[in-house]
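**Backbone geometry record:**
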Amino acid sequence: MASLPGAPLNSAESPAANPPRLCGLGWLLAGLWFLFTGIFSAPAAAQEIAAAPDAGPLAIERVEIGFDGHYKVAEWTAVRLRVRCSSPQSVALVVEAPDSDGNPAAVPGALIDIPAGESRTIEGCFRTGRLQGEVLIRLVDKEGKTLLQHRLRATAAEGSPLRPALRHDVPLIVTLADLPELRNVASKSKTE
């Protein structure tokens, strides 16, 4: 088989067959960038919700979604609510999010008893099939009747509890500890 003048001898030598790859230094720099953004970011993106005085027996005080508000499309994501009741209630968290076809998919949670006048954190999960979807959070009683609902729309605004989902090819790296504080603890233990 004849080749053109100046053309590589085989396809393995062509630039299209061997695209540039991230070398060791590139991986190191990328890892350091993710490490420092994780260390210096807020511990959780949450939305404080001001309850109206006539809000009824239930009020959502705080909403947290994912890791610092970040989550990936088509992956299970945690949702946490801080709920206050003026009278004793048994409620379940139901989270609705669009699937990959845009149809709402509801994920019900377990029934939780909340005493009067106390705040409780309720946890659940959901999976969205859309990068720019919205999430409907409902609190229902044991018969399934909706007692309270809160709709969140994905926005990139700072402090928003629901940011646009990350694509599958975007890495999501979670730091489980604030490393500067760990260094302070280690230095204190050495002086004692």
In short: The helical segments are 24-39, 179-191. The longest strand covers residues 104-114. The longest helix spans residues 24-39. DSSP finds two helices and eight strands in the chain.
